[in-house]
Amino acid sequence: MDLQQQRRTLWSTLMGIFVVAWPSVILVAALPTIAADLGTDASTLSWVITLPLLVSSVLLPTFGRLGDLFGHRKVFLWGLGLSIITAALTVVAWDAWSLILFRTLSQTAGVATTPTAIALIMAAFAPKDRPKALGAWSGVTAFSPALGLMFGGLLVAALGWRGVFVMQVLLAAAFFPFCVRWLRETPLAEKVGFDVVGGISLMIASGSVLYFFDRAAAWGWGHPSIWVAALIFPIAVVSFVRAEGRTSDPLLPPGLFRSRRFAAPVSAEVLSICAGNGAFFMAPLLLTSLFDTNVVSTSFLMLPLPLGMAVGSPVGGRVAVRIGERAGATIGAVAMTAAMGLFLVGFLMESLPVFVVGLVIMGLAHGMMRPATASAAGNALQPEFFGVGMATMRMTSQLGGAAGISIAVTATALGGYGWFYAIGIGIAALSIVAVRFVLSQRPPTSRAEQIEATERVETDTALTISPAFEG
């Protein structure tokens, strides 16, 4: 593929990812404003973040397979186009549940651009050029939420929270024709199947356990639907395991999580993101209630988090190469635990500077953890399973993030912010334990080996970047 077409492919995928991703963080920052406008509570509105995370994470491998079967350009354009339409519907949401529905549809359609964008870039660039292209892609993914926080608060203050989605629709509609014109179709794969039963079972299992924790906080532990969800969970898990064993096209590679080389880094990242996403979701609610901030100041106060992640990610990649994935991931896990401790101290002392420092460290912790765990998990995969393995890691991380939000809502409703941050410290500390089981590659000795290893880590990280800010 010529240089001009490579640039067009890269710019098209970057534009698609940007318009899908940038509203995600400002939506969290604006939750108190949205809750007041729609006359609902934070527990109910948490599903605006949790449900899109849940549905989109489970469908990630499916979108990748749809791209293999029908063409990644086609799936990318359909996802982006449907995201525009459903974002427009979000503008006219009349209550909390219509907002949850339209936001879930919009984000689920938008996440179809993720695996297809990666496939389009991989097809357009030679192997030696892919790390740089994927690095640009992951940079846009990391900086889109930061831009959303920088300008989204002002937009909400000027036009209301609906103005965020109006801007998303206008930008996406402006970019869409360029994507149609510039993107070229990828070769189609043969004999690609779908594990429909496994995907539905996994979604039901994940949704039931999240529903159990989330609704228990709002309706109490004696509510009948809470225990119905508790009964559905093990049935759905058994159905998923049986479906995976019978199908010729399993959703997850057989025996993947029985391998310590893969399970340890994934478990460490899931625990870290579980704690971090819960704290991230609760941050605007605490800032509004404890420090009396408005949506503009809340947005800017939360800005250090995505910026810290954007800065920490390349540093974390180089640290993982120099001293090993286990050591790099340990630094990230310890930093996440320290951030949760700072949140607890900031809450108890009612100190805004301590709380903001915690946000900075949490962003850096995410950035340090991601390259190390992605690299360690990638090393555990055979080449033919690399794509689905990375998608599985991304999916699992997003499920952990959704669980973190539900835990945060439940713990805060039952015991207040302090109780949640104490639980968050425990979850983050468990990630330190999980990190100790991560197997590191031998650190490279020559300059050539260091360059090759750095490019590999950057590629692995690009394929799993930023679940903390999606949904």
Number of domains: 2
| Main sheet makeup | none
Named CATH architecture of the largest domain: Up-down Bundle
Secondary-structure element string: HHHHHHHHHHHHHHHHHHHH
Would you tell me which CATH topology of the largest domain applies? Growth Hormone, Chain: A
- The H-level CATH homologous superfamily of the largest domain, spelled out, is MFS general substrate transporter like domains
CATH class of the largest domain: Mainly Alpha
Q: Which structural class best describes the helix and strand composition?
A: mainly alpha
Summed over residues and divided by their number, the pLDDT gives a mean of: 81
Describe the structure.
- With 471 residues, the protein is mostly helical.
- It folds into 2 domains: 3-194 and 249-469, MFS general substrate transporter like domains (Growth Hormone, Chain: A), CATH 1.20.1250.20; 195-248.
- The chain has helices spanning 3-21, 23-29, 31-38, 42-45, 47-70, 72-91, 96-110, 113-124, 130-159, 162-182, 196-219, 224-246, 260-291, 295-302, 304-323, 325-349, 352-379, 386-415, 417-435, 447-462.
- Helix 13 (260-291) runs parallel beside helix 18 and helix 16 runs antiparallel to helix 19 (417-435).
- It is globular and about 55 Å long.
- 57% of the residues are buried.
- Residues 466-471 have low confidence and may be disordered.
